[in-house]
């Protein structure tokens, strides 16, 4: 057997170069002119939906199913950037005009995000080259400026009073509204809370929100007592969803739609402005920022660990859980077991 005459350092240099170019030994062994079969959208979209998280699948699933309806028999590498942009414009034009309609921008943005998700997987699976990704070459539509504002105290009081009266289950509606005002959490944060997520002694609730983030959020003793009463009265198992209908069934996202439609019938400005639960988050965080500062508002919102939301400054202004509890105590007028004492604040 003839010994290799290639020096080890030359082999190492070649190996490093191949890694930088994204070429594997399998690629080198393939017969020239023969390439791996690129799947069609109908074949590959179910693979992608099975691989991504439940939240992303819920967001992208409807858009990708429509893509399959149009391009199901086409291979991923047959679609051009111009076709992607044309489809985006069609989605924008066909968007349902709900009360918060903003020109179909959300539909166009979600379509591009969904296609980018598919093509990122295809690149990772070595089905196409990164340079051949058509979705990456199409810009998302520019988002209009948000019309949300912090609700004035008078309007917020009207909303709380309306939630607690009328409707089929005003006790549930009042609990939802108060929880969002106190915690400034997103809709998904409350819907995922389980009885086992309640820390009764320290008045904390574990929130699981978008991006698989977890945080312990202070709540007032009054709200904690309401949550415990709700669990006891409606029989939520410890490891299942806390919010329950009168029938004992778990509450889903549609409850929010029905709640704010009902509130809009009592308070016309709710419908006119398109007020939703996210407005309560906006209202609370605005108040916290004005009274307790930027760093505490970031932590209160669950943004303290997200550099994309706050920039480099965030690493220098992180607030503690005790500071968040202090802000909550100021908001509700109730003492909190984790709040800083006045001497400590001074």
UniProtKB/TrEMBL annotation:
Residues annotated as domain Tyr recombinase: 146-329
Any GO BP: DNA integration
InterPro entries hit by this protein: DNA_brk_join_enz, Integrase-like_cat_sf, Integrase_catalytic, Integrase_recombinase_N, Tyrosine_recombinase_XerCD
A molecular-function term among this protein's GO annotations: DNA binding
Pfam families: Phage_integrase
Keyword list, A-Z: DNA recombination, DNA-binding
Similarity-based family: Belongs to the 'phage' integrase family.
Protein name per UniProt: Integrase
Organism from which the protein derives: Actinoplanes campanulatus
């Amino acid at each position: 057997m003839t010994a290799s005459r290639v020096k080890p350092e030359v082999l190492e240099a070649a190996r490093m170069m191949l890694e930088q170019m994204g070429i594997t030994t399998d690629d080198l062994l393939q017969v020239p002119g023969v390439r791996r079969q690129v799947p069609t959208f109908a074949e590959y979209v179910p693979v992608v939906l099975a691989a991504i998280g439940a939240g992303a699948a819920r967001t992208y699933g409807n858009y990708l199913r429509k893509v399959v309806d149009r391009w199901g028999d086409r291979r991923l590498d047959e679609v051009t950037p111009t076709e992607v942009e044309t489809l985006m414009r069609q989605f924008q034009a066909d968007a349902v005009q709900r009360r918060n309609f903003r020109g179909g921008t959300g539909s166009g943005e979600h379509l591009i995000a969904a296609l980018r998700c598919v093509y990122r997987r295809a690149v990772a699976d070595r089905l196409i080259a990164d340079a051949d990704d058509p979705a990456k070459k199409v810009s998302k539509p520019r988002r209009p400026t948000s019309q949300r504002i912090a609700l004035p105290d008078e309007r917020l009081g009207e909303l709380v009073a309306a939630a607690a009266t009328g409707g089929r289950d005003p006790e549930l509606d009042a609990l939802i509204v108060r929880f969002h005002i106190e915690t400034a959490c997103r809709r998904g944060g409350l819907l995922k809370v389980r009885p086992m997520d309640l820390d009764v002694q320290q008045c904390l609730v574990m929130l699981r929100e978008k991006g698989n983030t977890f945080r312990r959020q202070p709540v007032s003793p009054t709200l904690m007592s309401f949550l415990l009463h709700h669990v006891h009265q409606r029989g939520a198992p410890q490891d299942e969803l806390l919010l329950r209908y009168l029938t004992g069934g778990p509450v889903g996202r549609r409850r929010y739609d029905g709640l704010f439609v009902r509130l809009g019938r009592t308070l016309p400005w709710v419908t006119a402005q398109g007020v939703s639960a996210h407005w309560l988050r906006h209202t609370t965080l605005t108040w916290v920022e004005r009274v307790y500062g930027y760093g505490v508002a970031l932590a209160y919102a669950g943004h303290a660990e997200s550099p994309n939301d706050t920039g480099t400054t965030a690493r220098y202004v992180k607030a503690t859980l005790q500071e968040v509890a202090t802000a909550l105590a100021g908001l509700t007028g109730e003492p909190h077991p984790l709040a800083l004492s006045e001497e400590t604040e001074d």
